[in-house]
Amino acid sequence: MEQGLLHDFEARCTQEEAPSCQSMCPLHVEVRPFVKFMAEGNFPEARKILDRLMPLSGVLGFLCDGPCTAHCRRNTVDGAVNLPMLERACAELSAFVKPMSMPGSGRKAAVVGSGLSGLSAAFELAKKGYEITLFHAGAPGGRLLSLPTKQLPRNALPDALEMLERLRVTFAELPVFSSGRLESALADFPAVYVGLDDEAVQSSEYGTALLEGGLPDPLTLAARGTDVFAGGLPADAGPSFILEAADGKKGAASVDRVVKGVPAASAREKEAVYLSTLYTDVSSAAGNPAVIPADPAAPTAAEAVAEAGRCLQCRCLECVKHCPYLARYKGYPKRYAREFYNNLSIVHGQRKANTQINSCAECGLCAVLCPYDADMGAFCADVRREMVRDKRMPPRHHEFALQDMEFSNSAEVAFFRLEPGRSECGWAFFPGCQVPASRPEQTEAAYAHLRHALPGGVGFFFSCCGAPARWSGRPALTASTAAALREQWTINGKPVLIVACSSCLAFFQAELPGIPARSLWETLAEFPLPDAAGPAGRTLALHDPCTARHAAPMQENVRKLLAAVGQEVEELALSGKQTRCCGYGGLAAYADRETGDLYSLSRAGDTRNTLLSYCVVCRDRLRAAGKPSLHLFDLLFPREDAGQAALRPPPGISARQETRLSFRRSLLQRLWHEPPVRNPLMDEILLRIDDAVAEKMEMRRILRDDVKAVLLYAGEHGAMFSNAASGRSLACLRPRQVTFWVEYSREEDGPYRIHDAYCHRMVVPGVPGEGAPSPCTVEGYAVKGGRM
Amino acid sequence: MSTADLRDTDAEGWVCVTCGTALERRSVDITYMASVFKVELPRCPKCGFTLIPPELALGRMLEAEKILEDK
Ligand code: SF4
Ligand code: SF4
Ligand code: SF4
Ligand SMILES: [Zn+2]
């Protein structure tokens, strides 16, 4: 993957951006952890955070005027978090901790002026192991000396000075800052910071001379040559302690660079204040107005804790809040994108992110929720295509889905017929592969209804659309599947397709834009309802399938149909454009069953009502998650047992394939009078499988047909093991990239009793079918006929 | 590759039907994704038909498959 693609994506996700309080703090104090500790009443830990970036917090903690507060996200709710008050409380309620200074580095520098900026510069450099000489006139402290004790406690300044001395800062008093005397004293030092907030310096001959050439450079504070830096001048709005301290820190950083031989201007991005792009939803920040301390000069611990509790701990995570997949891995898109990118470039060693990459539902919800349109699903799709291209796609993730697609598109299943009795059709019904597999009678009823409603003939086009090829990152297979669909459509007179499944429709729109295709629901909404249509006896929560997310007309037509049948509907909070995925999208549930379940379970948890979907896979997955669920067909084309429809268990993988076959046979027989093509070998094997074994087979994705193929092969070739003690046999076959084993016995009356079925993918010599080209050699099994 | 993580499991009582022979433990080279493992497995000494018990297929074999697929 090109790095540019990663960077584009990274630039969209702002979760790692600082909150605006921090970005607008001249020192970029790490506000969130600081406030979090304050809210917990853990003042010593809060102090540690403050001390990380704030020089001399024992002084400045009392003096910051909070330029950040104008940018606090809480402003738009009920007033900014009062950070100056919290810092004051923290400085008062916790002890000054002497910073760990680096061992003496042997480096030297000088500071001129003992106002807050000079003291801050000295502190910053001393922490780095510098031996600092600080030149000052009169008692050190500058403007700090004149503050009332209400504002700055009596001990604060002396404590700070004492600590500076312990950090090997030498205070050198000069009676006058005459240029000559100072220059000669400074000659010994490779670089100097001059704190002009110290009145004694600013008004001196030296200070005046320094500013003659203009104001210091705003980025580095370079004032003269490459080794003299100056700051601390009052802003337009008047003097500000926080800006003075920030200047001292900035000047110290310049001095440090110069002494180390690095250009002062290098790597100084984001040092200045900036507007953060971090998005934070404040809509649920309940009214929690600012705490007004009884004595603003001395907030109590309780007052500080309460005020700190108002902080929203600003962060984005808009997408993570609603996507169980994103939440599951405990990160956020920007981090995941980096991890996926790195995963792609691993040559030796485990590609640990494979499963994560393949269990995104590619449902597009994140892109809708993200204020900057970051689409994790589209990113995952790119990554998957690259994995396939590099032959790094783990086979196990998509094999079953692709095999299932191949089955649905094989000559045994797929077909296209014009409406009986017609030689051309303006329309063709395309139910997809899943609707007939789960709702065969109703698919047939819908087809009858369409034939009745639409003049001009309605053909029937039974096939899988090819969505699994697309989701699994296989462009070539996607293209060949699409081409085969186009061919059938062309041969059959290019009818308008009426598509029952939103995933199919999305596939047609993306891959076959030249084929006119419309939603079944749109078509149905244009005609009188079927006679049997009627509401369920209760309110239904409407679940829009994720592949209909951007199909607003389809969503509207479904709602129209529901209104027409008189169905009472609950609109879910996340619906329409913001709907959630059931876990089938992107083949997520195939790559990782557990993540797949998280999707369906979280959707099921969105309502207490029975769910209604117009995608049959959604319906079946939600039902499998334990939720009573209906498909729109259950209202429009109800079966006799309509009352039980919401509880009907979803068909398993074998039943789906078998239903596709039987659906085809019976439809061809009834409408076109084509005799059923039977498959004597496979059809005649009778299996007895109890629920526990059937459940295991479902979990292991073993089809009844796989079992039959093993039995047929064993019967024909005698290749099996037998166990006299248990009376059972054990046989196996490797028809494709999987070896299936079946433990069975023969019942008295003929059928096979299946005791266990399991599979593996490793190749074991001496297993029948191993080395044989897929598809296998058992007649009538799996995909042998090629495409229709 | 080593055999350490793929030792065989019991397959007592099974007989190869083709040869009528009891199985014996033999070292077998099983392969996956260009890696080869030597594993002791119950095998028909005559025809070489090899038995994979369910615990092995669904346990250590599955684990190894996953690791190799993510390589
Ligand atoms: S919504 Fe998600 S992807 Fe977008 S900025 Fe927020 S955390 Fe990042
Ligand atoms: S709510 Fe908290 S994190 Fe957000 S801007 Fe305000 S102080 Fe900063
Ligand atoms: S599952 Fe959907 S919402 Fe979650 S990351 Fe993937 S595309 Fe985005
Ligand atoms: Zn044998």
Overview of this structure, please?
The complex is a heterodimer of chains A (788) and B (71). With 788 residues, chain A is an alpha/beta fold. In chain A, strand 12, helix 27 (552-565) and strand 13 (569-571) form a beta-alpha-beta unit. The relative contact order of chain A is 0.07. Chain B is of the alpha+beta class and 71 residues long. Chain B has helices spanning 54-58, 60-69; strands spanning 14-16, 21-22, 24-32, 35-43. A two-stranded antiparallel sheet of chain B has the order 1-2. In chain B, strands 3-4 form a two-stranded antiparallel sheet. The radius of gyration of chain B is 13 Å and the shape is elongated. Chains A and B meet through strand 17, strand 18, strand 19 and strand 20 of A and strand 1, strand 3, strand 4, helix 1 and helix 2 of B. Strand 17 of chain A pairs antiparallel with strand 1 of chain B. Bound molecules: iron/sulfur cluster (3 copies) and zinc ion (ZN). One iron/sulfur cluster is lined by residues 319, 323, 325-326, 360-366, 376-377, 581 of chain A.
Poorly predicted runs of chain A: 771-778, 782-788
Going across the biggest sheet of chain B, name each strand in turn. 1-2
Shape of chain B: elongated
Q: Could you tell me the radius of gyration of chain B in angstroms?
A: 13 Å
Largest sheet of chain A: 6 strands, mixed
Give the amount of beta strand of chain B, in percent.
25-35%
Number of domains of chain B: 1
Strand content of chain A: 5-15%
Strand tally of chain A, please?
Answer: 20
Put simply, the count of helices of chain A is 35
**CATH class membership of chain B:** Alpha Beta
Distance, first to last CA of chain A: 37 Å
Task: Show the largest interface.
Answer: A-B, 36 and 35 residues
* CATH architectural designation of chain B: Roll
**Care to count the β-strands of chain B?**
4
